Input
Amino acid sequence: MRALMLKAAPIAATDATVIILGESGSGKEVLARTLHANSPRAALPFLAVNVAALPEALLESELFGHVRGAFTGAAANKRGLFEAASGGTLLLDEIAEMPHALQAKLLRVLQDGEVRRVGSTETFAVDVRVFCATNQDLGRLVRERRFREDLYYRLKVFALTVPPLRERRNDIGPLATLFLGQEKHSTKRFTRAASRALEAHFWPGNVRELANAVKHGAVLSRGNDVEVAHLPDDVVCPRALAADGPFRALADVEREHVVRVLDACGGNQVDAARVLGLGRTTLWRKMREYNLGGDRH
Output
């Protein structure tokens, strides 16, 4: 994660659009807010909208606003998020879910820097930096004609990928402590066993799942140090099963599989990555995480 933040630092100073990629719950909005907070626009609004959460008609009004009488129920003029975020930053989360008709309108706004409210014939200038986030492969969606190619290349000035939490084991402890402090927890501490349980979990829900697990522990510990018993069962149970029966931690099984594939490929990481369905960089991270050493090339 440190390498990602070092890469993001100079990007924060620009006004270019950024696509933030990563699994659901991996911290894409956190990164967007960090970029905004370290940019010249930091004192101005940061607004976010989940594109997938709104139907097309409502999303258009939410983004661009509307005038009175534009549609049934439009009793008054309304500012859209592009107006409300003027001078600041607008995050379009789940951008891959935006309907094609709105993609065309968004492209026009990005190209011309002007917005027209729904039902109006007048346009006006806006100065907004746009971030987009998605857990999907936009390049593949373009090839499948499910996302506009011209919008894709207009947005893709910079692309940042937030790795899943399971590939950022060193972040688990600091993040857990941060979340515990946000719960106004008295000691702000985990026992050593609880810390080990957090670090061993696979975290399929990423940072969002970790935050919820910490909240769970904070409530049950009642201000005392958070112990293993205070953590959610689905965080603790895999460890108990591994100790009491034939079940094993997923990380152990994955490590053995990676070793077998590497051996079968004669240590060739390019071939192994292709067999595993991973990127070369992701395989390298896993080898480092599992202490497989640098003798495999």
